[in-house]
Amino acid sequence: MSAVQQKARVLLHEAMAKNTFRLRLDGVELATTITPGQFFMVKIPGENDPLLGRPFALFDICKDAEGRVAGLEFGYVVVGKMTGRLAQLQAGDEVEIWGPLGNGFPASPGGRLVFVAGGIGQTPFLALAREALGVQSYPQQNPRKVVQPSSVTLCYGARNAEFLAGVEDFKSVPGLKVELATDDGSEGHRGYVTQLLEEHLKAPGEPVTIYACGPEPMLKAVQKLALSYNATCWLSLETPMACGFGACFSCVAKIRETTPAGEESWDYRRTCVEGPVFEARELIFENHP
C-alpha cells in the first residue's frame, strides 16, 4: 500500500447543507496521490474518544492561485461522536490523516456515465465528474487514462431540499448534467433517485455505465436495475470501518466467485482494501430482517 500518514491543518470549514459540512485540509502529499472513490482516515490528534479514526471519501483536491495542489476536501454529516467533534474544528486546527485507502472508482470507459448518489453519497462524484469531463486529472503524480464519455449525469437524491449538499459545486462542472430527487418533492423529482436512473437505462443510445454510492437500500435497488438492463455498474459501499487498512476484518463484504472446478461460490473481501468499490454483479447483499 502507498498510504501516507500526516498531520494536516484545517484551511476551510463551512456548511454545505443541513447538518452537512465541508472540510478543506492542507494534506498536499495525500492530495497528489488520491483518485476518485478512494478514502482516507481522519482522527483528532491527542484524543482517544473516539479511539479510532473514521473514513471519509475524497470530495476533491484544491489548488492555489499558481495551480499547485494545495490540499483536499471531504464532506460529512454530523451523526455521531466523531463527526460531532469534527463540527467543532476551526481554520488552523490540526487533524491526523492517512491514505489514500481503498481501490476507488474505475476511470471513464466512454459511453454514457450515470452517477447515482443518496444521502452523503454524492461526495465521490465531484472528482470523478471533473476527471471524466477533462477538467482535472487523478492522481496528480501519475494521471490515469480516461476515455471521453458522450455524456455524464449525476442523479442525486435526499430526504428533502435541506439535505442536498454541494449541488452548486456539481453544477459548476462544465458538461455535467445534474438531476435531483427528494422524498417530499421539495427539489427536483418527487420520489426515488433510482427512478431517475431507470429513465437513462430505458433511453436509447450508447451503453450506460453506472457508478453509485449511498445507503445500502439504494445500492440494492441500483444493483437490481443494473442487472435487469445488463449495465456495467460499480457500487461504493459505506461500510463502517475500524482500522482502514485491512488488519481487523471488521468491514468485510460477501463477493461471488467461481471455484477452480467452475462452481459458484462466495468469499469475504475487505471493504477498506479490496473495496470500497465493487462490481454490482459480484456483490452479495445480506438480507436483514
UniProtKB/TrEMBL annotation:
Subunit structure as annotated in this protein's UniProt entry: Heterotetramer of 2 PyrK and 2 PyrD type B subunits.
Domain FAD-binding FR-type per the UniProt entry, residue ranges: 3-107
Record carries keyword DNA-binding: no
Example GO molecular function: 2 iron, 2 sulfur cluster binding
Superkingdom, taxonomy of origin: Bacteria
Names of the cofactor(s): [2Fe-2S] cluster; FAD
One biological process term in Gene Ontology: 'de novo' UMP biosynthetic process
Family according to the record: Belongs to the PyrK family.
UniProt entry tagged with the keyword S-adenosyl-L-methionine: no
Pfam family, one: DHODB_Fe-S_bind
Pathway: Pyrimidine metabolism; UMP biosynthesis via de novo pathway; orotate from (S)-dihydroorotate (NAD(+) route): step 1/1
Organism: Planctopirus hydrillae
Keywords associated with the record: 2Fe-2S, Electron transport, FAD, Flavoprotein, Iron, Iron-sulfur, Metal-binding, Pyrimidine biosynthesis, Transport
Cofactor binding note from Swiss-Prot or TrEMBL: Binds 1 [2Fe-2S] cluster per subunit.
Binding site for [2Fe-2S] cluster: 243, 248, 251, 272
Task of the protein: Responsible for channeling the electrons from the oxidation of dihydroorotate from the FMN redox center in the PyrD type B subunit to the ultimate electron acceptor NAD(+).
Name this polypeptide is given: Dihydroorotate dehydrogenase B (NAD(+)), electron transfer subunit
CDD domains documented for this protein: DHOD_e_trans (cd06218)
